[in-house]
Amino acid sequence: MTLRRASGRRSVPGRRSVPGRHAERGQSMVEFALILPLFIIILLGLLEFGSAYDHRNAMAYAVREGARVGASLGSGGTSSSTVDPTIVAAVRRGLTDPILIENIASIEIFKADTNGAPIAGKVNTFDHTGAAVGAPGWPASTRVAGINGDMLGVRVVYEFRPTTPLAAMLALLVNPVPPYEVIRMTDALVMKLEPTP
């Protein structure tokens, strides 16, 4: 039995000659160039969301610490002038990495109603350094502790600044002005005032 070749060309093992192979390679490069920006935006979005989530968790911890300290201090008794500074110090201690203290817009200590909402005019506001902003609306000496006591709330308003160039990239695609430069985050917690020890 004799084998005959179909063509006069010699075949090289492992190498195939495919017509239009260079065109397919160019098509792959075009597809990659089209998908790469979308992939980068998704990747940066995931990183940005992870960073924002990390900041949010740090805020929640700080607010919980402030509310816990405030509830345990009650009205403060004879040292009522040190109650709010102690609460603010607890909040600031709780604001650990990645939170930037200078990005805190305000720390508020407020009297809450039964639904946990602030009562109008019963709010004490502090800046990121712990200095009081305006006159106190709810002095510590007027707080009632115990079973039928007041509900004390602590709220932190934080200005999250993007950590990736996602805003600039979206500005190029969507709008001439970046869609966000600062995202305001707010977290609050309310606890009942415990009797002063």
Which key phrases capture this entry?
single chain, 197 residues, alpha+beta, five-stranded antiparallel sheet
Characterize the structure shown.
This protein is an alpha+beta fold. The chain has one domain (24-192). The chain contains 3 helices and 5 strands, in the order ααββββαβ. The protein has a 5-stranded antiparallel β-sheet with strand order 3-2-1-4-5, covered by helices on one side. Helix 1 runs antiparallel to helix 2. The protein starts with 20 loop residues before the first helix and ends in a 5-residue tail after the last strand. 24% of the residues are buried. The model has no long low-confidence stretch (mean pLDDT 84).
Quick take:
The chain is of the alpha+beta class and 197 residues long. It has 3 helices and 5 strands, in the order ααββββαβ.
Helix content: 25-40%
Order of helical and strand elements: HHEEEEHE
User: Strands across the major sheet, in which order?
Assistant: 3-2-1-4-5
Distance between the termini: 107 Å
Count of beta strands:
5
Q: Sheet with the most strands?
A: 5 strands, antiparallel
Helices, by number, come to: 3
Structural class: alpha+beta
What is the count of distinct domains?
1
Mean pLDDT comes to 84
Uncertain segments: none
